[in-house]
Amino acid sequence: MAPSQAATGRFGGESLVIAPQWIGDAVMTEPLLRRLAARGERITVAAVPWVAPVYRAMPQVAEVLVLPFGRGGVEWAARRAYAAGLRGRFDRAYLCPNSLKSALIPFWAGIPVRVGFSGELRFGLLNRRLPNPPKNSRPPMVAFYSALSGDAGVEGDRPALHVAADDIATVLAPRGLQAQGFYVVAPGAEYGPAKRWPATHFAAMAAQLERPVLLLGSAKDDAVCTEIAEAVNALRPGRCANLAGRTSLDEAVALIAGAHAMVSNDSGLMHVAAAFGVPQVAIFGSSSPLHTPPLNPAATVLWLKNDAAYQPPLDCAPCFKRECPLGHTRCLNDITPDKVLSIL
User: Fold this and answer.
1) Half-sphere exposure of 249 (CA within 13 A, CB side)
2) Which residues 6+ apart lie within 8 Å of 168 measured at CB?
3) Which stretch of DSSP H or E encloses residue 27?
4) Which of 210, 212, 209 is nearest to 172 (CA)?
């Protein structure tokens, strides 16, 4: 198939964006999509089900395709069949993940221009390749994704999400909530316990807040959220509601957008709050806010690594481990509930 004028030129045409598989990463692609839309490209995003709702909060996205694939295997035959249904629809494809499997659908769909970072045996699948910087010198993730646009000056890009006030009200009303009348607390972090502030700390903090507290997360976070809610409600009955695994991601996004403030670990929901400009406290342990910070002027990051008053210094941080290799998890245990409360 010969490339269309839109495919060979810089502006316009139909573009397919292959989304990352993590909520936080999906949020961080928003400036890329804004850049593409601003130069006249009509944006369709192909995303896995647990990420797709993030793209429905991006007005520049014209269509969201929910991919019928899970994490893990390549599913060669299924991807090839899916790609056949897209043939002839798109002028360009932008691949946010670095994986081989993310490049298969655009290639098999015959999309004329396929843009992505070099890596994982994708040489023949991409025809516009960007050099993939080494992990130890990779730019912050927002700029990393925005570089796929080919534009210069992407270092200052900041994600922004939007949910209409009526849509927020539709989610709040059945729960008896009003916008800015509650706190959201997200005590989970998919990567592991070295990114999670202790449940006892979350409970001690939440019990002292003067607005209702909603605990958000996936079904995997239900146990820790139950522990927190029971501890808070034992002191202040009815103050804390555990919604982990009990909302869709669309509903969770609306609840965050309507919150007075949010407290979380370094997680995907942290980035959602940042993109709405919600006042937030973001607690970092084994990971680094130098690489994936909440890009929000209303955010306060707590990271003992860069706290000159904290002694002895955390020479071990950031370790990027799932569990503390030294067994003490000082980076999280020593951030006190009172410290968080002093910011809220």
Assistant:
1) 19
2) 179, 254, 257, 258
3) helix 23-28
4) 212
What is the C-alpha separation between 32 and 151, in angstroms, rounded? 10
Residue 20, preceding bond cis, omega within 30 degrees?
A: no
Q: Is 208 left (phi over 0), alpha (psi -120 to 50) or beta?
A: alpha
Tokens 């970092």, residue located: 284
| Residue 171 DSSP class | H
CA 96/CA 29 separation, integer angstroms = 8
- Give the tokens for residue 212: 């209702």
pLDDT digits (tens, 9 = 90+) for 25-37: 999 999 999 999 9
Tell me phi and psi for residue 102, to 5 degrees.
-70, -20
Residue 211's closest CA among 254, 182, 174?
182
Average pLDDT, the chain: 92
Nearest Cα residue to 159 out of 14, 63, 57: 57
Taking only the tens place, the pLDDT of each residue in 327-339 is 999 999 999 999 9
Q: How far apart are CA 42 and CA 160, in angstroms?
A: 18
End-to-end CA distance of the chain: 57
What whole-number distance in Å separates Cα of residue 267 and Cα of residue 22?
Answer: 10
pTM reported for the whole predicted model: 0.91
